Predict the structure of Rho-GAP domain-containing protein.
Amino acid sequence: ITDDEERANTYRTILSPVLNLIAGSTLRRILAHLHCLSQQSSKNLMTVENISAVWGPTLMHAGGKSAEDWNKAETAVVGDLIKLYPKLFQLSPADLAKEARILEVLERHHSSNNGVRGAPSGDLKIWIYLFQRDGECCNVTIGPQKTAYDVCRELAEKTKIPAHELCLEESTLAGALQRPLHHAEKVLEVVARWGYCDSEDRKDNVLILKKDRLYRDIVPR
């Protein structure tokens, strides 16, 4: 059958008796998604042929004597269903307009991703003191994955001290408690934990960049 309308009618005649309401709705949503992906093939390389090769064995099993025969039949039928999705489910003008809006949003998303990006969400700017609480301080951007060593490496040039000779220290309770951070410790997690303290206890909490005393003590001179 070469005519698209006739093929869609044939598939509908075959599928309608064997699909209940839930199965039919599920198939429609899957094919809608795959059809939408295929419309973006110039950007995601997911042509109908590529999608059907992956989804064919998942959506159906054609039977036959060899795996090669199964794959060819599955790929051909699923590819047909994806291509014929609008005709197969007889989409109304409102449905087609909705599909067009989805594609428009995806186009804007792709365009914005190709432009200049802003700062990733989840980043926090904090002040880090250099060597003492009342000394000079620097504004440093802290992301979820930024470690204490990353901060040391970032500030090494400013301090003219190699990063491996620096450490980041947490000073809490107005300096009553001081703790050097492990080099792999996530700085954002340290700062976030201050939120569990009483406001009076945490108001003077700071991070201080210091020379690594342990390094100085163990390295032979």
About this structure: The mean pLDDT is 83. The domain at 124-218 is CATH 3.10.20.90 (Ubiquitin-like (UB roll)).
